[in-house]
Write a structure and sequence with these properties.
With 556 residues, the protein is an alpha+beta fold. The protein folds into three domains: 205 residues, Up-down Bundle (Multidrug efflux transporter AcrB transmembrane fold); 71 residues, Alpha-Beta Plaits, CATH 3.30.70; 179 residues, Gyrase A, domain 2 (2-Layer Sandwich). 53% of the residues lie in helices and 17% in strands. The strands form six sheets. It has a seven-stranded mixed sheet. The radius of gyration is 35 Å and the shape is elongated.
Length: 556
């Protein structure tokens, strides 16, 4: 009697919990506290993007412990960026030693998210090189590329400026790169008398490759759109970087989002970092005020440094008045204003041709912090909402057809006992959905497959019980005795089969990723639910039926 009461209490609790969490799916306009937990749809069901990142610490000298910390830090920073980006219910998880899988369901702008996630966000303030340093850099790089042009076949199609014209450029006192309304160009006096250039295949003519690569329409220090990809490739070349003069960094200017075909400026910087993003306290987007057409009504980024950063910034600006201080993010120069005077208060601005969206994204990555190591996007996949909707329909249809066939079979073959099994099956499906809702899980197509598999497993347990009961009835036992004996004989087999499957599901969850985990979760919940439904719920239904109706025969 006590066992029956305990069993009844357990069933009541399970049914109430299931009803509580499944109600929001069936009843609209419930109170907020009731709908705070809900079942999420995965990437394959509602559409969105999946990005696989690889943390690249190949260029960094890190111990194994530091590599582990780098991946953990990168994971946390990326999570912070995505949270600020506003994607609802993202999935961010580490896979293997240095990979991170990011799933962004319902994302409408995957390109923006990819750019946001992939930024290292290394903020640096660096001084511009002077005229002599700039001249030396051009001469050394031109000489190196001339002597090693066979190692850079992709540079052989660059239009080459004649040597005499290059000498005029390098001898100019106004070689320093400056900003104008049209972009960043050299002084007019440094660009005069540059004649039309010609392409050549003679190796001895490759004397001015670097200067030619960074000259656009008679303007030195500017990279034309057709040469930008080549220039970026050159900057990544390790041997080329070794031949950049000591203490110098060659950098490219920021792309103009309003004109993606516009040329981009070249910057020759001092490699020493005067101030870094680690001193940044907060970045915010602001809109320019006043009547200056360059800034009025245009977004810019306001930087606020912490106490140590403010002091350092004041020192740097005080010691370098009338020099240009470049603001560099991930080796791309966003602006390089002239320092007019010592700046107190620890505030700075990043101005430029920002769109509001671009400025907001930059603020997100700056506030989240810079990644400890670069990350490479090694895989990306986008699922449209239509495909997701089709997947839902296909999954639901498969589940309904499977359930319908099972229900009909059980009713035809086992009669009233089949009805009991079908009741248990319905409770089991509801139990799976309720538990996933309670855990705020994500339902994916593999998860739906796990639920469909669970339907068969739940019925399989009941089939074992029913066949044992049939055997007992054939041996002449009463209905009551046959039911008890049937359950006792079948329970070991049911537990054995389900526990071994549960172990497999747990292994899949532990070592699987993404969709595999979704399948393992629903399968695991379904296994537990099917054992409860078959062993506890169906037994309770039988007990109530036999006791209250006083049956001497059983439809099975």
């Amino acid at each position: 009697m006590k066992n029956k009461k305990l069993r009844g209490l357990i069933i009541l609790i399970v049914v109430l919990v299931t009803a509580y969490f499944i109600a929001p799916l069936l009843v609209p306009n419930l109170p907020d506290f009731w709908t705070s937990k809900r079942l999420k749809l995965g990437l394959d069901l509602q559409g969105g993007s999946q990005i696989v990142l690889e943390v690249d610490y190949s260029q960094l000298k890190l111990s194994n412990e530091e590599k582990e910390d780098a991946v953990k830090t990168a994971l946390e920073i990326i999570r912070n960026r995505i949270d600020q980006f506003g994607v609802s219910e993202p999935s961010i998880q580490r896979v293997g030693d240095n990979r991170i899988i990011i799933q962004l369901p319902g994302l409408k702008d995957p390109g923006r998210a990819k750019e946001l996630i992939g930024k290292t966000a290394l903020l640096e303030f660096k001084l511009m090189a002077n005229s002599d340093q700039t001249k030396e850099t051009f001469e050394k790089l031109d000489k190196y590329l001339q002597e090693n042009i066979d190692n850079y076949d992709y540079l052989k199609k660059v239009e080459i400026i004649e040597t005499e014209q290059v000498e005029d450029i390098l001898e100019s006192e106004d070689l320093d790169i400056m900003e104008t309304e049209e972009g960043t160009v050299a002084e007019d006096s440094a660009a005069t008398d540059i004649e039309e250039v010609e392409e050549t295949e003679d190796e001895e003519e490759y004397q001015n490759v670097f200067t030619s690569l960074t000259t656009h329409e008679d303007m030195p220090g500017v990279i034309s759109q057709k040469n930008i990809a080549v220039f970026k490739k050159l900057l990544k070349d390790e041997e080329f970087r070794k031949h950049v003069p000591a203490g110098i960094q060659v950098a490219i200017g920021k792309e103009d989002k309003n004109d993606i075909y516009a040329p981009r400026p070249l910057y020759i910087l001092l490699d020493r970092t005067e101030l870094s993003g680690k001193y940044l306290e907060k970045a915010t987007v602001k809109i320019g005020q006043g009547y200056d057409p360059k800034t009025s009504g245009k977004p810019y980024i306001s930087l606020k440094f912490n106490k140590a950063g403010a002091k350092k910034f004041e020192t740097v600006t005080g010691q370098n008045v009338k020099k240009r201080l470049a603001i560099v993010l991930d080796d791309v120069v966003h602006s390089a204003p002239v320092i007019d005077e010592k700046i107190r208060g620890g505030e700075a601005q990043i101005t430029g041709t920002f769109t509001l969206e671009e400025a907001q994204d930059l603020v997100i990555v700056l506030n989240a912090g810079n990644l400890p190591a670069p990350v490479n996007i090694i895989e990306e996949r986008t699922v449209g909402p239509t495909l997701g909707s089709d997947s839902i329909k296909a999954g639901i249809m498969a589940a309904l057809i499977g359930m319908a066939i099972v229900i009909l079979f059980m009713m035809i073959y086992y009669g009233l006992s089949g009805v009991f099994a079908n009741i248990a099956l319905a409770v089991n499906i509801a139990f799976i959905i309720a538990i996933m809702t309670m855990l705020e899980g994500t339902l994916t197509m593999p998860g739906i497959a796990g639920m469909i598999l669970t339907i068969g497993m739940a019925v399989d347990a009941n089939v074992l019980i029913f066949e044992r009961i049939r055997e007992e009835l054939r041996s002449g036992k009463t209905v009551r005795s046959a039911i008890d004996a049937g359950f006792n004989r079948a329970i070991i087999t049911i537990l054995d089969a389900n526990i071994t499957t549960l172990i497999t599901a747990l292994v899949l969850y532990q070592f699987g990723t993404g969709p595999i985990k979704g399948f393992a979760v629903t399968l695991s919940i379904g296994i537990v639910g099917s054992m409860f439904a078959a062993i506890v719920l169906v037994k309770a239904i039988y007990d109530g039926f036999v006791t209250n109706v006083n049956r001497t025969k059983l439809s099975i």
